[in-house]
């Protein structure tokens, strides 16, 4: 189906523009993020927040894709609920309205009546037609019908870093350990029947700053992995002889130690699940390992499609270690995106509960699994 990939890229560009606007406009910066509680809260953080940008971006992506591809309606999912607190402490259901004027009116309920300029800027960005000018995308037909696909959106991955807004964090070995750079927009499409990720777009709204204007400039990456088709805006990175690993700061000492013995140097630490997956796709790291249940379908779907397009993938860590212990010689199980985890509700039913390993080159995956296999069960890795 020609047209879906450019549409995913176009919505990610619109989303990135809204993310940049929300950081550039004073009244939007002053808007207090809403704290998540109960099942909405990610256990990775003591306090977990969502901003108007998270909710508005998810709604604009749902709106634009559902309008262009009616077969996708009801199959576009994302991290956030559409509710946000209004200026009086009540609740507004955020959505893209039929006209920019109606969207302004709705945003004013969130921002307060004096914030007309901010509401107008946001509504203008949300309703703007995006022209890509990326001719490479026009010729790509992934050979899959939207009626067979579902979508996972992480409107902003690394919301904490987005809120913190640190602009000048120096990279270490090419990887930004934290800061705005790690806030990404992730839009992935998976096969509704098999759960395999097939199309992915990662947008970096805060890739670099224009040296003259100091305004943030973004960039995007895409990948297609369907049937025998493997296409990607990136080239497969050259493998290092010994894998360099990137990890979450929350990762256990046991995992850090085991992976440090691989010979690729001490593991690098970075914020953002999507950003660490991107580091693997870019070849800044050879593997991202996570032994904790703190990522979700919306974090991994889009990067996973890109990694598959490059010849790699994202496997379920617990399942892969179990198969290895049982003497299995086949491919370790990859993450799937179509079925909620039985017995779980809300976001937890979409958690990558058994952790993950992301890689491009299969020998690196095998080296990582061998190192972690020495440690025992996944539960013991957290110690
Ligand atoms: C978060 C975000 C965090 C990540 C966590 C994700 O998503 O990517 O940065 O933790 O696992 O769920 P870490 O930085 O330790 O990898 P969000 O910001 O969308 O809630
Ligand atoms: Ca996320
Ligand atoms: Ca998010």
Describe this structure in words.
The chain has 383 residues and is an alpha+beta fold. It contains 13 helices and 15 strands. The protein has helices at residues 4-24, 26-30, 52-68, 100-111, 116-127, 135-138, 159-164, 253-260, 273-282, 297-309, 317-325, 362-373, 378-381, and strands spanning 34-36, 48-50, 76-78, 83-85, 91-93, 149-157, 184-191, 197-209, 216-226, 229-232, 245-247, 268-269, 287-290, 313-316, 356-359. Strands 3-6-7-8-9-10 form a six-stranded mixed sheet, with helices on both faces. It has a five-stranded mixed sheet with strand order 12-11-13-15-14, with helices on both faces. Strands 1-2 form a two-stranded antiparallel sheet. 49% of the residues are buried. The model has no long low-confidence stretch (mean pLDDT 93). D-MYO-inositol-1,4-bisphosphate is lined by residues 42, 44, 79, 154, 157-160, 248-250, 271-274, 294-295, 299. The site of D-MYO-inositol-1,4-bisphosphate has 18 residues, from strand 6, helix 7 and helix 9.
